[in-house]
Design goal:
The chain is an alpha/beta fold. It is built from 11 helices and 8 strands. The relative contact order is 0.15.
Length: about 300
């Protein structure tokens, strides 16, 4: 495999390990940072597909902040038909792809992409957060010029026509729209407009960090029909990005219920848990929180499969 990894500490009873393995058969990770990337990654898309195929995952959606990975996904499917985990990708609307670029979104959809993320590293909210957080995002790099904010609104506070166009592409193609790193107040407005324009698949990206969301905000967005996606990297013991507890993960799940919760790894960086390690630990944590097998399967497979259209 590629880069540095973290060793899992301690051991679990064999029957518990077996139950975790069984619950991960058919799992979907809709937000994972494998490489190649300008940022350091512990494994590439092909290595990830091999590892997850061995574990029985149904699908994975690779996410890079700077490019659409649909070409990589297509090549893996063509040259490695033995791999049982289907590899998909999407596009994040940051500077490198031209920001609000309807052409790029259409191309991603035409090549089998599954998700379009609103700006992440180039979101105005992200840049404000990073300036005050005292923490540099792991995908930030000095190898290219610093990000500049991708505008979503005109000087009068109205949604830019390019964003309307992108919402229409999502509605027409079935692409899921994920909120990325825009502020929760912007997410509410964009998701409301997306619903008006016929977008059926909405993902609220990690309300627990960066986007400024309260519990009330999170429930409100779920009530709009969005799936609430939690990044396991922020909750798991052994993750270098951990800033929340297992108990807090349980509070988020209870807020909207397992039926509207997606657990994604948001892993793949060097020096931390691998995506598979993250999922195994997350399943163990969910079982310790008292969730039954049906609830766990919904959060690690069924809900993500539905929102990216694998069940259609």
């Amino acid at each position: 495999m590629g880069g540095e990894r973290v060793k899992m500490q301690g051991s679990m009873p064999l029957e518990h390990e077996a139950r975790i393995s069984e619950l991960l058969v058919g799992a979907v990770d809709p937000h994972v940072h494998s490489g190649p990337s300008i940022a350091p990654r512990a494994l590439d898309h092909l290595e990830l597909a091999r590892e997850l195929s061995e574990a029985g995952f149904s699908a994975v959606v690779t996410k890079d902040h700077d490019y659409s990975g649909v070409m990589c996904a297509t090549m893996i499917a063509h040259h490695h038909p033995d791999l049982t985990t289907r590899v998909f990708s999407g596009i994040a609307l940051n500077n490198v792809v031209g920001g609000l670029n309807p052409y790029g979104v259409e191309h991603t959809a035409a090549m089998g992409g599954k998700i379009v993320w609103l700006p992440t590293l180039a979101a105005e909210n992200h840049l404000s957060w990073q300036a005050t957080s005292g923490w540099s995002h792991p995908a930030s790099t000095s190898r290219i010029r610093a990000a500049t904010a991708v505008r979503l609104w005109d000087d009068d506070g109205k949604m830019l026509p390019e964003l309307h166009d992108i919402l229409d592409v999502c509605a027409a193609t079935g692409l899921a729209l994920a909120s990325g790193h825009v502020h929760v107040s912007e997410t509410k407005k964009i998701f409301a407009e997306a619903r008006k324009r016929g977008v059926e698949r909405l993902i609220f990206t990690h309300p627990e960090d960066i986007v400024g969301a309260s519990m009330e905000d999170t429930r409100e967005i779920a009530d709009m029909g969005a799936m609430v996606e939690h990044s396991l990297a922020f909750f798991l013991e052994g993750s270098k990005f951990r800033n929340h507890t297992t108990e807090q993960l349980g509070e988020y799940i209870e807020l909207v219920g397992p039926e509207r919760t997606i657990l994604c790894s948001d892993l793949g960086q060097v020096g931390t848990l691998t995506p598979l390690q993250g999922f195994r630990r997350a399943v163990s944590d969910c079982l310790s929180l008292g969730y039954d097998d049906a609830a766990v399967r919904a959060m690690v497979s069924g809900n993500a499969a539905q929102v990216i259209g694998l069940d259609s």
